Amino acid sequence: MNTFAELFLKKFGVKYGDYVSVYLNDGSKLNGVLMPKHIFSHAETIILKLDNGYNLGIHFSKINRIEKIEYQYEVTNNIFRVRHQSRRSNLPKIKILAVGGTILSKVDYRTGGVKSAVDPDELIDIIPEVLDIADIETEIIMSKYSEHLTHDDWKIISEKVYKVYREGVDGVVILHGTDTLGYTSAALSFSLKGIGIPIILVGSQRSSDRPSSDAAVNLLSALYLAGNFKYSGVYVAMHDGSSDDLVAVHLGTRVRKNHTSMRSAFQSIDIPPIAFVRNYTEILYQEFLGELNMRLRGEEAIEFKPVFSKNVALIKFYPGMSPEIFKFFMNDYKAIIIEGTGLGHVSDK
User: Fold this and answer.
1) Would you call 260 a catalytic residue per the annotation?
2) How many domains does the chain have?
3) Which of 54, 59, 120, 128 could covalently link to 138 via disulfide, CB atoms 3.0 to 4.6 Å apart?
4) Active-site entry in 119, 121, 135, 179
């Protein structure tokens, strides 16, 4: 059954995948590719992928006419696909594993919230440049926002990465929510210690259908890093600074999210980022890497230990905090980590 948008486009003799000029009632013109809409889009809008890569929603009432310029894409099962996309035979083989998060979400414009509505194949179709960077395969492990992940999920992710590694790939990219991405990267750093390829966790602060989204540059950079980084191990690749040309590479055990919404929210702790990816075509290595004793790609000494204890508590110190709080944890917990102030200060009481 045709949607409102498909019937509207049919009036102008165009369809999803066509490259078109959209003439607006105010006399302006926009060029781009007509994109399929997701389930949260307004019924009386079309989605146009502009030449600059941004997606723009346009209400029917603002459109005067639409003219097809050329046909260069195809749509299969409501998925936007590039036709005759070339692949070089020497591209690195990368496995993309989807866990969830904003990078796999779209805005529900009815509520203003973000909903999980994108599978990894659809994300790749929205960002077709990935096919020039790597020979990719995608798989959904789970679909969870990162605040819902548990120790059991870390075990599942670890086991999947290890399985993929043994099957033979050049790198793995994990699509993950940003809120607890630092926890997962640390967990995988220990459960996959000594792995011989790069494992790159990546997310986005803003969903892929927003004009200011960091999803594209983060994903493209993560893929390039997974296929070309000379070191093995677990890393986080996220937007750096205010420009769109640089993505920072953080050690999996030395990174945290320090801002709720900034695209450059992730920072390395007690160490600068170990590298940067520029324009997803070049890796800029920091000079101090020789001091970190990092393992090169292909140097395997893996100690696969996907075992995580649930009986560890993280407690944040605050002024006036009562020591009585610790009694609750003393019997059942194996360890208590106290997040102190400043350099780790707590009250002497």
Assistant:
1) no
2) 3
3) 120
4) 179
